[in-house]
Amino acid sequence: MINLNKKKIFQLIFLISLLSLISAYFIEYILGHQPCNLCLIERIPYMGALIIIIINFKLNYLEKYFILLLLFIFLAGTLISLYHLGIEQGFITESLVCDLKNSSKILSKEEILQQLQQKIVSCKDVTFKIFNFSLTTLNTLISLLITIVLTKEYLSYEKNK
């Protein structure tokens, strides 16, 4: 396995996070594929990672805590992605996060017409694939790999000072 120092790991995670967000916005705004609600939520760990890594470069003495914080952020990202993947594959039914159009309140004619005009994307619909993998599948793999690398780095932190 490739042995990277902490600075290289932070730079790599920063680059992956930046490229992931740029790709997501490119696919949404340039290619016109609308994300579902879970897709939007899955972007949050990458945004958080960018902020944390920038702060880490200024406050380097808190590096161990930033590694732990990033670990928890990407672990949460992995769990959200796995949940979304379960919905895409039909193992899990959509929750209220995904199924916002089925609200229990009574709607007027105008509100119904307004909802029909909006393009609502279901969490189980895969609208874009790369190498025949959904973006959720790729996000699950990326988040899981980053979580594993950060776990290894955190557990060996004192040894690799």
Describe this structure as you would to a colleague.
- This protein is an all-alpha fold.
- The chain has one domain (6-155): Bromodomain-like (Up-down Bundle).
- 63% of the residues lie in helices and 2% in strands.
- The protein contains six helices and two strands.
- The protein has helices at 6-30, 37-41, 44-58, 63-89, 109-117, 135-155, and strands at 129-130, 133-134.
- Strands 1-2 form a two-stranded antiparallel ribbon.
- Helix 3 (44-58) runs antiparallel to helix 4 (63-89).
- It is elongated.
- The model has no long low-confidence stretch (mean pLDDT 84).
Summarize this entry quickly.
The protein is an all-alpha fold and 161 residues long. The chain is 63% helix and 2% strand. It has a single domain, classed as Bromodomain-like, CATH 1.20.1550.
